[in-house]
Design a protein that fits this description.
Helices cover 55% and strands 12% of the residues. The protein is of the alpha/beta class and 197 residues long. The chain binds adenosine-5'-triphosphate.
């Protein structure tokens, strides 16, 4: 038996950076967004569903995903995006539960940008939200992805407002460059280890 925690936060808040610290403490991490990309080219049921939704052109000849076609179609049509999410989120949910059952650790962490939006929070015991000031997040993503400000703002606008995530959090991590991330992670780690299973 172990506890299953989720970690989320807006784009550029520093979820992955925080996960690297938990990982250094020996905590197994499930990177849901990365795993979703993998499942979309490996899970036969999911592949069939995506082809049914977008046509066979959703995949290139080498089996990789035709990201350009999918994002052009899905981001222009909210219904289609919702249908895509309705295929991907349950597939990741199932895969995540299987992964959790295989871990041997006092607790595990599932990192996902859309932990609330996907409903995946329902299968988790506690949620950690990473927050950072909006301007800091925008600057970090622009530098990391080499993209324009508008592109980052557009992605932020598609996510649940940060205040809403903060309201729902069991633990908060302030990644504003002023508070020590290592200290905050260690404090949460210490507290989680005292929680009843
Ligand atoms: P996404 O939602 O896009 O996956 P994320 O929340 O996982 O983003 P990270 O990738 O961890 O965010 O961080 C965004 C960028 O900001 C990265 O380049 C990371 O190295 C940098 N970064 C994160 N935290 C800090 C910090 N405290 N100081 C300096 N740079 C940071």
């Amino acid at each position: 038996m172990s506890l299953h925690l989720g970690i989320t936060g807006g784009i550029g808040s520093g979820k992955t950076t925080v996960c690297h610290i938990f990982s250094a403490l020996g905590i197994p991490i499930y990177y849901a967004d990365e795993r979703a990309r993998w499942l979309m080219i490996q899970d036969p049921d999911l592949i069939a569903g995506i082809k049914a939704l977008f046509g066979a052109e959703a995949y290139l000849e080498d089996g990789s995903l035709n990201r350009q076609l999918i994002s052009t179609l899905a981001f222009g049509q909210p219904d289609l995006l919702a249908q895509l999410n309705a295929l991907v989120h349950p597939a990741v949910g199932k895969d995540g539960l299987k992964w959790q059952a295989e871990q041997n650790s006092p607790y595990t962490l599932k990192e996902a940008a859309l932990l609330y939006e996907s409903g995946s929070y329902k299968t988790l015991d506690k949620i950690i939200v990473v927050t950072a000031p909006l301007e800091v997040r925008i600057a970090r993503v622009m530098a990391r992805d080499q993209v324009e400000r508008e592109a980052v703002e557009k992605r932020i606008a598609q996510q649940m407002p940060e205040e809403e995530k903060i309201k729902r959090a069991d633990f908060l991590i302030h990644n504003d460059g002023e508070h020590s991330l290592i200290q905050q992670v260690y404090e949460i780690h210490r507290q989680v280890l005292t929680l009843p299973l």
